[in-house]
Design a protein that fits this description.
Strand order of the largest sheet: 6-5-4-7
Number of helices: 6
Order of helices and strands: EHEEHHHHEEEHE
Number of strands: 7
Distance between the termini: 37 Å
Shape: elongated
Helix content: 25-40%
Amino acid sequence: MSKKRIPRNAPCPCGSGKKYKNRCYGKGFEWVEDEDGTAGKSVPMTEDVKEVFQQARQAFIEEHGREPEPDELLFTDLAHLEHLEAMLVGDMKATGLDPAFIYAFEKTGLLISEKNQHLIPEKDLENWRSAVEEYRRKHSKQQKPVTYPTGTMAFYGPDDKTTTKIAAGVFTAKNSKAIIKRWVATDVTTNPKIQREIMEFFNEHGVTSVAMSDGNMGCPHEEGEDFPVGEDCPFCPFWAGKQGSNRRD
C-alpha cells in the first residue's frame, strides 16, 4: 500500500493540536498517510541497520535461490516479541535502571532518554511521563507497620476486566494461617448483601485495616479442585499460563 507525506501545514497526527511543522516535523522521522487515511511514522534506517537487512536478504537468497517476497520474514529465528521485551526488562533491572523508567517502558513500550526525547511525538512522550509519575506516586508513600488483625481482599474473574469472585482473608498475627471466606456472583463487587457480609466478616475478627489486590489476580476456579494441578483452567482461556503453578512469566 502506497504512502504519502503529510503536508507541513496539516494538523500533526501526534494529537497535540498543533500544525505538523510546529510539532513533529524535522524530529528525525516523518508522519505518512496510507490510502485509507491512517497515519504512521516512517523512520529512516541508519547505515548499520541497512547493512543488517542486506545481510539477511543475502542469506535468504542463498537458502531459497530467489529474492524474498514482500510478506516473507527475513529474520525467522527471532524470539517472540513478548519474550524479547521480557529479556530487555531483565537487562534493564540488571543494569540498575530507574524502576520508574522500566515501569514506563512496560506500560508504553517506550524507552526514553535525554538524547532521544526530541524524536518522540508529544502525545507519546506525555504518556511515558505519566507512567513514570504513576510509578513514583505509588512508591513514594511510606509503608506503615502492619497491625493485627489485618484483612485482605483478592479479586478473581474469567478475565482481567470482569470480577465474579472475592476472597477475603484475616491474619490474626504475623505468620498466622489466614481465615478465608469467599463470595461468588456476577455482581460480586456491587451486591449490597455481599458488601455487608464482607464488613461483618472483618468486624467479627476485629480487623482495622484491609489490603486489596490491584485488579483480578486470576480466574475464579480453584487449581486442584476445579481443574488439575499444573494445568490451565479449561473454563477461563484468558488466564492460560498466567496463574497458579502453570504460570509462565
